[in-house]
Design a protein that fits this description.
The chain is α/β, with parallel strands linked by helices. The chain folds into two domains: 127 residues, Response regulator (Rossmann fold, 3-Layer(aba) Sandwich); 76 residues, Arc Repressor Mutant, subunit A (Orthogonal Bundle). 47% of the residues lie in helices and 20% in strands. The chain contains nine helices and eleven strands. The strands form three sheets. A five-stranded parallel β-sheet has the order 2-1-3-6-7, sandwiched between helices. The longest helix has 16 residues. Keywords: DNA-binding, Phosphoprotein, Transcription, Transcription regulation, Two-component regulatory system. It holds the Pfam family Trans_reg_C. One of its GO terms (biological process) is regulation of DNA-templated transcription. This is Stage 0 sporulation protein A homolog.
Length: 211
C-alpha cells in the first residue's frame, strides 16, 4: 500500500535539456510514478511549484534564466517540499552549497537512472510514510485509514472485506491480480469456495467508487 501511495506523489523535474527531462520522465513512469511535470526554466519551475504544488522537486543548477540554488531559495519561501539537485556541477563547493541550503540530496551528471529512482524513493518514504494513505480516483477518493470512500461529498464506509480487497488491488496496481490472490487477501490461506462472495464484494466496491 505504501509503495502505491508514494508513487502517486507529484514530482517536478527542472532541467533545460529536453532530452534529460524526457528520459527521467520515462524512467519514472516505468517505475510506476503517474504525476510528473517538467520545466525548462527557473520561471516555469517557480510557477509550477506555486500552482501545481509538487511533493518533490528535482532541480538542475544551471538554468537559462537563473541558477538552481536561487530557485531553491525562492521555492523555500512558500513550501517545504523535499528537493534533490541533479546537475553537472560536481565540485565539492557546489555540493556543500546545495546541501547547506537545505537540499535533501545532490547527484552529479552523468548519473545512473536506477540510482536516481532509488534516491527519489528514499526521500519520499522519509517525508511521507507517516501520512494516512489516500488514493484519488476519477470522481472519488479512498481513505484507507478511515476505511471509507468519499464520492461527491458523501462518505461511504468500507467493510473489512472490501478494505482488504481494495488494498490488494492498490498494492498490485498495474499488474494482473487473480481471483485466487484476491480471495487469499480477504480470507487468508485456503480461500477456496469464496469466488462468488468475492464477486459480490467487488460489485459493491464498484458501486461505491464509480460514478
Amino acid at each position: 500500500m505504501e509503495q502505491y501511495y508514494l508513487k502517486q506523489k507529484k514530482i517536478l523535474l527542472v532541467d533545460d535539456e529536453k532530452e534529460i527531462l524526457a528520459m527521467i520522465t520515462d524512467f519514472l513512469r516505468e517505475d510506476g510514478y503517474t504525476q510528473i511535470k517538467t520545466a525548462g526554466t527557473a520561471e516555469e519551475a517557480l510557477q509550477a511549484a506555486g500552482e501545481w504544488k509538487p511533493d518533490l522537486a528535482v532541480l538542475d543548477v544551471m538554468l537559462p534564466d537563473g541558477d538552481g540554488f536561487s530557485l531553491f531559495e525562492q521555492i523555500r519561501k512558500f513550501t517545504a517540499i523535499p528537493v534533490l539537485f541533479l546537475t553537472a556541477r560536481g565540485e565539492d563547493a557546489d555540493r556543500i552549497h546545495g546541501l547547506g541550503l537545505g537540499a535533501d540530496d545532490y547527484m552529479v551528471k552523468p548519473f545512473l537512472p536506477k540510482e536516481l529512482l532509488l534516491r527519489i524513493g528514499i526521500i519520499l518514504r522519509r517525508y511521507y510514510r507517516d501520512e494516512d494513505p489516500v488514493v484519488n480516483l476519477a470522481g472519488s477518493r479512498i481513505d484507507f485509514a478511515r476505511a471509507e470512500v468519499v464520492k461527491n461529498g458523501e462518505h461511504l464506509p468500507l467493510t473489512a472485506k472490501e478494505h482488504e480487497i481494495l488494498s490488494a488491488l492498490c498494492r498490485n496496481a498495474g499488474r494482473i491480480v487473480t481471483i485466487d490472490q484476491l480471495c487469499e487477501a480477504a480470507w487468508g490461506e485456503n480461500p477456496f469456495g469464496y469466488e462468488n462472495s468475492l464477486m459480490a464484494h467487488i460489485r459493491r466496491i464498484r458501486e461505491k467508487i464509480e460514478e
